[in-house]
Design brief:
Elements (H helix, E strand, L loop, with lengths): L1 E8 L2 E7 L9 E9 L3 H6 L13 E7 L12 E4 L9 E5 L3 E3 L6 H5 L1 H6 L1
Antiparallel strand pairs: 1-2, 3-4, 3-6, 4-5, 5-7
Length: 120
């Protein structure tokens, strides 16, 4: 799976890396990310990234693995999510308390901008 990771280089702040697909905890869903939205705070973190930084707090996509504890939306649900990190990737894990099912009339690109803005 591909993930954007920080480089520490201001001229090219992120690059793609091949990494293993994340494995969800019991209370997390695995989402195939269709869109993500960078936010201002994350762009500042890219200037001097701490080791292990995985940007990505605003995503939308499709649940491909439901939470093992039975909470949250099921496989195939269109969702918006707010992971702690790691959303700038092809797949992301998100706690079910940080996921909401999307209505059919909201597309993935617009939905990706909702989590942090909605919390704020």
């Amino acid at each position: 799976m591909r993930r954007l990771i920080p480089t520490g280089d201001a001229a090219r702040p992120v690059t793609f890396a091949e990494v293993p697909q994340p494995v969800p905890e019991r209370d997390e869903v695995l989402i195939k990310v269709e869109a993500f939205a960078p936010n201002r705070g994350e762009t500042f973190l890219l200037e001097y990234p701490r080791p292990g930084l995985l940007p990505g707090k605003d995503i939308s996509g499709i649940v491909v693995q439901a939470a093992a504890d039975g909470s949250g939306p099921g496989i195939g649900a269109r969702v918006v999510g707010h992971p702690a990190q790691g959303g700038w990737a092809e797949y992301a894990t998100v706690p079910t308390h940080s996921v909401a099912t999307l209505p059919d009339d909201i597309d993935s690109v617009r939905a990706a901008a909702l989590p942090l803005a909605g919390i704020t």
